Amino acid sequence: MSIESAISFFIAVLIFGVTPGPGVFAILAKALVQGSRSCVLLAMGMTISDIIYLIAACLGLAAIATHFGEVFTVIRIIGALYLAYLGWKMWSAPVDLTPKASKDSKTGHALSFLQGFLISASNPKVILFYIAFLPTFMDLTVLDAQDIVVASGLTFVALMIGLMAIAVFASKARRLFTSENAVRRLNRSAGSIMVGAGAYLLSR
Description:
Elements: H1 3-17, H2 22-34, H3 40-58, H4 62-65, H5 69-91, H6 106-121, H7 124-137, H8 145-174, H9 180-203
Helix pairs in contact: 1-7, 1-8, 2-8, 2-9, 3-6, 3-7, 3-8, 5-6, 5-9
């Protein structure tokens, strides 16, 4: 992959990463309620899933994946239901304006990462993006391990930058909500966004 192709690929993935979809909606909703730091592993889960799709496309496995439609359907349904559940939890969360220290746990980290992974893995536009765009940036007939590593690294950096930029923006907007009614509206708005993301994912 040439330097020009690498830069173009990076920009394309960055733009793709911030395109509205279930992943962006999930990041937005979580950051609005819990802040940007809570989105790191969520974004990483999405990014790792994307990289797996990227490698699969590079190795020519995309055609094989089309024969496992039932598996992708099950994953999509599970992901959509989980998003709807999280949306309900946000909607019904009690209003508490007292600052609290974050209580992260290994289980919470794993669930956040898994949530992000499922969201991306069950989104058909991800594999379609890499199938359609990879030939534009690299010759798949002469692809070697170094090209795949470079493309994976660029994808990781571009997606994390894009997703975390959204999280930081949403987190800053969250600070404007200082009354109980405002926080309640925030929780319900974020919950609605999360449920909407699940419905969108289920309809694809």
